[in-house]
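Final report, Chapter 2: Outcomes

The project's central promise was a pipeline that accepts a single protein chain and returns its three-dimensional structure in a standardized token representation, suitable for archiving and comparison. That pipeline is now operational. To close this chapter, we reproduce one record exactly as it appears in the project archive, with the input sequence first and the structure output second.
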Amino acid sequence: MARMKPEQGQNLYLAGESRAIIENSPHIEGVREKYEVLYMVESVDELVKPLIEILQNALGDHVRQVRLSTPFAASPVCLVTEDHECSPVLERALHRGNGRPGVKRVLEFNPRNALVSRVQQRLATNPEDAFLPNAAQVLFGLALLSEGSELTDPVRFRQAVAEVLNRAI
């Protein structure tokens, strides 16, 4: 979705059994030349779209995009930069003390991680669950802490962790 043009406005996707089936689908004949279409060929893909939307809505002030990633082994989430962007370490060094906000990055999540799976289960059970925005904040905080960055809002992170733990215990 990184190639999506700003005027596209919404994510377009089509799920299918293979790339060839999706590419030849009549469902995207009229749009594939003009717009980016996400091909969802893994069975897990359709299940994570609602999670992507929840995370994007909850974290829109902090991340440019939320997307599924499969190279993870154990981590639930990680923040990534695009090829043309500074690493988080360099960005912190350049912006230290000047009060400028950093560049919004991409949050990638591991759908096979147990924590992410539990959030997905909660979402499937009740899409309006007040727990979900707190879970999104915790996942974002974990991504920041994992790379050595500071929390963007430590108070909000503490509140989210407390709420998530309160519901888990």
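Archive annotation: The helical segments are 19-23, 43-59, 88-95, 114-125, 131-146, 154-168.
This record, like all others produced under the grant, will remain available to the consortium after the project formally closes.
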